[in-house]
Structure formats: structure tokens, C-alpha cells
Amino acid sequence: MERDKVDLGAGLLVILAIASLAFLALRAANLTRAGSLDTYTLNVSFENIGGLRSRSPVKSSGIVVGRITDLSLDQDNYEAVAQLDIETGYQFPADSIFSVVSTNLLGDQYVNIEAGGADELLGDGDLVTGNSAIILEDLISKFLFDKAAEE
Amino acid sequence: MLGMNDNAVELNNLYFNYPRRNVRVLSGVNMQAPRGSIVALMGGSGSGKTTILRLITGQFPVPEGSEVIVDGEYVAKLNQKQLYKMRRKLGMLFQFSGLFTDMSVADNVAFPLHKHTKLTMSTIHDMVLLKLHAVGLRAVATRFPSELSGGQQRRVALARAMALDPHILLYDEPFSGLDPVSRTIIAKLIKDLNNALGATSIIITHDVPETFQIADLIYLLWQGEVISSGTPAQMSASQEPLIDQFVNAKADGPLPFHMPGGSLAKDLRLAR
Amino acid sequence: MPGNEQLGKSRRRYGTLARIRRLGWPLVESVYDIGMVLRFSLMVMLRIPSALRSFSLIWVQIFTLGTLSLPIVIVSGAFIGFVLGIQFYTILDRYGQTQLVGAAAALTLFRELGPVLTALLYIGSACTSITAAIGLKRASEQIAAMEVMGVDPIKQEIAPRFIAGLISLPLLTIVMLGVSIMGTYFMAVIQIGLDEGFFWSNMQRLTSFYGDFTEGLFKSFVFAIFANLIALFQGYVAHPTAEGVARATTRTVVFASLVILGFDFIITSFFVDN
User: Fold this and answer.
1) What pLDDT, on the 0 to 100 scale, is given for residue B61?
2) How confident is the model at residue C9 (pLDDT cuts 50, 70, 90)?
3) Do C156 and C56 form a contact (C-beta atoms < 8 A)?
4) Strand B73-74 and strand B67-70: pairing?
5) Is a pLDDT exceeding 80 seen at residue A32?
6) In angstroms, rounded to a whole number, what is the distance separating the alpha carbons of residues A124 and A119?
7) 3-state secondary structure string, chain B?
8) Looking at beta carbons, which residues of chain C come within 8 Å of A34?
9) C-chain residues within 8 Å CB-CB of B115?
10) In the prediction, which pLDDT does A60 show?
């Protein structure tokens, strides 16, 4: 009886620690893929993704409709390809505009989808081209060059 | 074995100072415990009795110039491993029993058997019951030490001490803190076990009546020295005031009631 | 570390010589004590291989030291998580950076709070019980009984507790981290209503498993070595009386806490430098 209590208790500690370790490794520190809802995948290529990262939200009119699951560089044309997991409940026309936008000047960036008017809808695995992120440094340098050219 | 003689334990010129304190505990003790005998080391509190036991078991290092010989082996020359091996020949009964509080009575007695023999579980189980039967406590085998009385605890500890059939049994104050009946039971057990095992017993005690009944040889210690030795009969008959005082428990005599020190008047600042 | 009550009690207390001796005595004593600690530690380390063979003794100690500390670790972890959620939300809201609440909490927990707080809780609940158990075994002559029976008490009683402590504290730290991050999540996302995706994605982005987390775990392992050794040593050298055990327990809490905070500083500066 005493023996059983010890086995149960010490076993409990080990199991809890393993569960916690799995949670930390998969959720808190970078080793996971989330996605528990039903989703379909869209691939969007950007010239520049700016500060976008894996697990950043995808929004349409401010509503979160999916998440970025993967970011990679296309070796053929050196464009960034973002893999978006969109919840199956949300469908978008083929001519929708995908762009990288910021929540605020310093904050995190996300992918915004502006729905188009086409009848055809985007399906699983489709590749579309998106508008690149606005890079603050580029804007500033462009502004300065323009100013210099004017003078 | 070299140096083999008829003494199970022999102490020659034993000196001892406690480390880190310049207090002399033993100053030149000589003692022989012949094989098969019951030897009692008697003396008042603080006369260095327990220190002698610790030196016999090798728990304290033997000082230079002193000799402790147990079963023909010089304790000072043993390394850690040999010392542990030598200790298996010893059984010791502790003043506070030293029973393991987190084990049942039976597990306590089984502990040395598990540690030092390769006997099967069922053999050990039977041996434990026999040992407990010998001290009359087979009925409490499954209880825990804390559920027993002081006298019963000491008997269980005795069963554990003799679990490995030791050659030499050491008793640290076996009678202290017990009622008269338990004292008599313990005294009887010591005598019986010594005869049954053919062992040698060394008893550290200050209880005169029980000891005089069972001991073959008595050493009287005072402030780290043996002041007298002999058989109980010799000791009882002795007219020497020191022995008379101790044997008959007189409050004052050659052994002063007051610890040696300055005068009382000086301590009370009545005199300069 | 003073392990003995009778230290420095020399007979002659007065006179010039005694005064000079009193000056040097604490130094001599502390050197003596350091030597004792080192010898004890070495003895424990040397017994580890043979103690590993009797795993049942270790398993029982994992229960006593680890499982019995679980409730306090879980409850504290949850509350620490809640508090971090509120605090970081309040602070980061001033800069419009509330999406970093999860990351900030996780970094703090992984690198500092998790290992240190768990170690301090462990000292309070497990180390005190180690010192008391060993001290009482000494006071009731159980240790002496083992020695006389030819059973090594370090191998039987000390080493299994040490190994179990080395296993238990890191396990408790991992549990604490998991629970406290869930606590932060509960407060920041469910109660305050921050975006769940930003919460997790920033946490993942800014913390790394093989850096922040492993550093915390390394710390917790180092803490385990020292906290357990101190507790065992204090129990082993405790004056074998009720009062002696009580004092030893106090010393365990004081010394172990100080040593752990000190080592936390040392390890942190080492990691930051690299």
C-alpha cells in the first residue's frame, strides 16, 4: 500500500514534468505548428515580407481569418513565400489583394486580405502574389532622395 | 591469526582527546575482555564510558600510542573497508535503541541480514521471527518502533544486534530509563544470549544491582582512568572507600559531590 | 559554515594571549569548516555510483522531496503567472506593445523566476525535511547503528537523497514553468483579452528552447546540487538534540537561499557575457 502510494506519487511528478516539457517545447519555444481548426492553405509570394513571422495572424477587415504557418524563400526568383492557413469557413475571390501591414508604427505586422469582386474563389494550395511590406527605412530614404533631387 | 589470544577485546594504554576541544576523556585505560565473558565498564556520567565503545567500533580514530584490539585485529590499522568488515562481527545495543523509525520491527531486524547476506526472502523472514521470538516479541513484528514501549524497543534492538550472530556484543547503557521489570528482563536476555551465542559481551552501565548479577568482570572508571577491577564478589567485598562509595551509591566520599573548582565564596564575589 | 555549537569555546577566556587567539580563531574555524564541507561533498559524490544501484531508495526520496513539493510549486506557479500577466500588460500597455506580454513573461520565467523561485520553494519544503530527517536519525542513533552494522550511512541515507534531489528540483522547475506560462496566458489572453496569436508567436519568436529554457534548466540543476548538499550536510553535522536539529534546519534555509541567489548572479553574468 505504502509502495503503491510512492509509485503513484513519484510517477505523477515525472508525468507532469514530461507534459510540461512538451508544452514548453511545442508552444512556448519555437518547435510547433498550431492549427487545430479545419483550414486550407494559400501560398502568397511577396517581394518583401518585412517583419512578418510564423504564427502572425491573417486578417480581413480586422477579423482574424487564419495564421501564417511557414515562411520560405523561393530560390528561383528570390521572393518570399508565405504559407497561410485560412479557416475553411472563410472563402476569398481570386482577385483579392494580399498585403503586409503593421498594427502600428513599431508593432507587429500581419497579412491583410482585401476581398476582390471575381466569382472564382481561391482554393487549397493556390499561389498568389501579394503586396510587399512598407519598409520604413526605404520610405525615409526615398523621401530624402526626392528632397535632394528637388534642390 | 597472529596475536591470537583468549581476549575478544583488548585495550592497551588508551588515551583520547575530543578533537577541537582540549578535553581529556581517557587517560591510559587498560582493559581485557576474555572470550565468552560478560565484562562491565562502570562509572559515573562523563567518565568516558561511551567513548570507549566508539573506539572499539572504530567510530572514533584510535590515537597514536594507544591500542584497540578486536578479535585479534588492530582497529587502528584497518582501512574503511576492513573496518566495515570487522564491524559485522560486532553487535551493538544503543542507549536510545537506534531503531530505524521508517521501517517495521521485522524490517529493522531483517536490515543487517539483507545488507550482509545473500539469503532468500523467505529464509530471512523465518530468521527474523526466530530472533524476535528469542526476545519474546514475535507478536509485534509488523508494528513500527514508535508503537512500542521503551523496554520493547530495546529488546527489538537487541534482536537486530544479534541478527548476524556476532562474536562480540556491545551494550551502551542497556538498563537506563527502564522500569525494574524491564531491567531484569534485559539483564536476563544479555546473560542468556551471551551463553547461547558463545559471544563476548561488554556492558557500559552505571546500574549496579543488575550488572553485578550477570557480569564476570567489572572495571570501574573514574575521569578517564580505570580505578579498580575485579569480579562482582571481589568488588562487593572491597573495603576500599572509592569502590564502596560507588557500589553502595553513597552521595559523598572520595568521589567528591562538587566538581573541582574555585571556592564558592569567590564565585559569589564575597571574597577577593 | 559553522556545523558545531561548541566552536571557539576555549578554556582561557581572559588575558592577552586569549584575546589574540580569539582574533584568529574564527578564521581557523572557517577553514576547518570549509574542509569539512568539501570532504563531505566528496564522500557523497563518491557514493553516487553504488547508490544508483538501489534505485528503490532513490524513488522513495523522489516522492518525498519532489511529489510532496508539487502542490506548493503548482499553486505558486499559477499565481506568479497571473501576476506577470497583469504586470507586463500594465507596463507594456504604456508603449503600445501589449503583444509582447507573453514573450516578456516567458523570458523572465525561463531565465530567472522559474529556476530561482522553484529552488527557494524547494528549500522551504524539501531541504528542511532533509535536514530534519538526517538530524533526527543522528539524534536517535540510527546513523550510528548503521555504522556499527557495517552499513555505510552515506550510501544508505545521504546519497539516495542527493540523487533524488538532483532529479526532483529540475522536474519541479519544468512543472513550475509550464504552470506559470499557462497562468500568464489565462490572465493576458482570457481575462484581459490580448490576441492569442501575437501572445504565442512573440513568445516563440523571442524565446529559444536551446538557450533561454536550457539556461534555466542548467541553473536549476546547479541549484539542486548546492541546496541538497547544504541540507544534507547540516543534517549530518547537526548537534544530536532536538534543539540542534531545529538550528540546523534554520541554517539550511539561510545558507541554501543565500548560496542559490549568489550562484544565480554568477551564472547569469556568465551567460550574459557569452
Assistant:
1) 84
2) very low
3) no
4) antiparallel
5) no
6) 16
7) CCCCCCEEEEEEEEEEECCCCCCEEEEEEEEEEECCCEEEEEECCCCCHHHHHHHHCCCCCCCCCCEEEECCEEHHHCCHHHHHHHHCCEEEECCCCCCCCCCCHHHHHHHHHHHHCCCCHHHHHHHHHHHHHHCCCHHHCCCCHHHCCHHHHHHHHHHHHCCCCCCEEEEECCCCCCCHHHHHHHHHHHHHHHHHHCCEEEEEECCHHHHHHHCCEEEEEECCEEEEEECHHHHHHCCCHHHHHHHCCCCCCCCCCCCCCCCHHHHCCCCC
8) 200
9) 149-151
10) 87
Mind telling me how many Å the CA of B236 is from chain C's nearest CA? 34
Among candidate residues C173, C190, C172, C174, the one with its CA nearest the CA of residue C102: C190
Distance between CA B220 and CA B206 in Å, rounded? 10
Chain A: list its partners (3+ Cβ pairs within 8 Å): C
Q: Treating both helix axes as pointing N-terminal to C-terminal, what angle do C114-122 and C70-93 enclose, rounded to 10 degrees? A: 150
DSSP for residue A131: B
pLDDT interval class at C180 (50, 70, 90): very high
The residues, ordered by sequence, that sit 6+ positions from B77 with a Cβ below 8 Å of its Cβ are none
Residue B260 grid cell: 573541582
Compute the distance between CA of residue B47 and CA of residue B16 in angstroms, rounded to an integer.
Answer: 12
Rounded mean pLDDT, C164-185? 96
- The closest of C14, C51, C2, C6 to C230, measured between CA atoms, is C2
Residues 6+ apart with CB under 8 A from B236: B212, B247
Q: What values do phi and psi take at B261, rounded to 5? A: -175, -175
User: Is the pLDDT higher at A33 or at A142?
Assistant: A142
Q: Does A103 touch chain C (CB under 8 A)?
A: yes
Binary contact (C97, A19; C-beta < 8 A): no
**Phi/psi of residue C126, nearest 5 degrees:** -95, -45
Rounded Cα gap, residues A103 and C204, in angstroms: 19
pLDDT cut 70: percent of chain A above it? 87
| Coil, helix or strand at residue C271 | helix
Chains that touch C (3 or more CB pairs under 8 A): A, B
B4 has pLDDT over 60: no
Q: pLDDT tens digits, residue range C68-86? A: 999 999 999 999 999 999 9
Task: State if pTM tops 0.80.
Answer: no
The DSSP annotation for C23-51 comes to HHHHHHHHHHHHHHHHHHHHHHHHHHHHH
Residues of A in contact with C59 (CB under 8 A): 6-7, 10
* Cross-strand partners of B7: B34
Residue in A with minimal Cα distance to C174: A17
- Residue-wise pLDDT for A130-146, tens only, equals 887 766 777 788 888 88
Touching subunits for chain B (3+ Cβ pairs under 8 A): C
Among candidates B21, B22, B87 on the partner chain, residue whose Cβ is nearest the Cβ of C150? B87
Cα–Cα dist C97/C91, whole Å: 9
Helix C214-237 × helix C114-122 angle, to 10°: 20
Cβ proximity of C44 and C148 under 8 Å:
no
Interface probe with C: pick from A18, A23, A30, A31, most Cβ of C within 10 Å = A30
CA neighbours closer than 13 Å in the CB half-sphere of residue C209: 12
Q: Name the closest residue on chain C to residue A63, using Cα atoms.
A: C195
